[in-house]
What does this fold into?
Amino acid sequence: MSRGLLGLLLILAGLPALFLAPLELGAVRIAGVSLGWWYGGVVAPLLAFVLTLVSLGVSPDDSDRSQ
Amino acid sequence: MSGSPSAPAGRDQGGWRRAARLGSVWTTPALLLAVPTALIAEGRDGLWLALLFVVAPLLASLASASTRGAAAGAGEGTLPVVAMLLVVGLLVWANLSLAGDIATWMGLPRWRGIVPAAGVALGLMLWPAVARHWPWLLPVGLVALVLPLVVIVYASHSNPIATWSRVASQPAFRFSADSPWVTEGRSVGPRRGSHALLFEEEHRVTPVGSGPLRIEVSDLGRLQVQEWTLAPGQSVTLRPGDRLQVDSPSRFKFEADKRVPGAPVSGIAWADSSRSPRPVTLIRLLGLGLTLVGGALGLVGFAGPTGTARTSVGLSGLVFLVALGWAECWALYAVRWAPEFFLAGTTTAALLELPALVLRGSPWGSRLAGVTLVGLFALFLAASAALRKQLAVAQEQAEAGVGSDRGLWIGIFAVAALAALWPVEPSSLVLSSLGLAASTRSPFVLFGTPADRPGAGAWAAGLGLVLFLGLTAVGRLGVPVGAVAQALVAYPALVAAPVAAGILRVARRPAGP
It folds into this structure.
């Protein structure tokens, strides 16, 4: 499995981990919004997007450049 | 192959057209609206679907890029194509069902939404002069969705972060005095398997219209059903613990400043706690995750002749992020300004009313709801055209056809339109479509077709299909007792996809000496 795929799966796994973490870690407030919502709603999707682009950039598709 | 569209997907020029195809297939209105619906209904737990909405197609693109040589179902005959046909058909059905729901919400018969939507989509797909320009429908749709949201944010004088904080600190979700559910009354019906509204405090309810009113009353631990027939204008007062039966949609007026039945107990309960026990939550997370990731692999993960390019994945990724931002904000402002969405009977289509509920009394509210509808319709048209391209690619890769392109699509829309006349929750049809894609097509994207074992691919796809349909049938005939059994029938891909993948994996092992 490529590192990019593994990274995306880890990003996904982060949200259930926050839900199930002890001491209600996902409910900790940062700038008025809970950590779970920051992560699942903002940080993780952006991180996944950047990681995908970086992973594709490591071995870019030739067909894209040819057009 | 006995028929193909005039411009096969593989010959699309430039990353933009490929991005539009990838983005349009995934941001189909039925799936997109499932995100705010889940966030409203489940709060924190709904974030899982929101995250999967972006990550699943990105993961599928990356998996497709890393296994470019493996075409889904290559050379395996018609079975993978038939599976793809079912996947596409279910998605069209889901969107036409949504069109029917929207028509019902507007007070029209279902067919008034379904027939025009199906007719315009077919016209777009089968009229070559127009079909060329379909990718532009995607940005048009997104702009038409985002515009009303910008107005809502501006008019409410509250940015999304402040709105989230406000919602999370609310002690309870209550009807406001100017709510249409209080002033004029609104229709309430069964939703998510629940046929009754539970009242947690004393609440006066006034039926609008005639007909008997059935209330489940708990008296000294004994459940009684009382039936009332009220004269117009008369009301009945329900006590805490009473349940108002809503087997069919009925119109009621509720009391101002009382808790909304079915809403979470407080803002913090909605924002930061789970409404299900932990084992059930875990199984649901796994089932939904496998369904969406596997569905994305099966639906958009196969690359097609031009492969998966960085530009097209980047552009489609931006589309997913914008769509996710819209869905999250739509849910947040709905919970803040219209907690009545928690009421049973509030369908996905009713979310369109949000601008009118935020801008109460302004004519711009209904106009912006119309703009939102235009945006969803544009996304539906783009999704239909993109699905046609995906099906063509699937036929090319499998070296098999299932009929002429024109006749096939007329058939798909005719059957889906007929089925959509019967109300079915669009999000459940989308989940079935993605589950089927996960069970029958995703293993091919991950492992490819074993070249030296002809027939293994057909066995994998066939068994995946049979298991998926069998478990779905079990779920429809009667939900089994127990959390694990319920999750298995709710997400049949949990069983079907690993079995299909296992067959392919074993078939790819080199034969022993």
Q: What stands out?
A: The mean pLDDT of chain B is 85. Residues 15-157+268-278+301-422 of chain B form a domain with the Amino acid/polyamine transporter I fold (CATH 1.20.1740.10). Chain B is about 60% helix and 5% strand. Chain B touches chain A through 49 residues (CB under 8 Å).
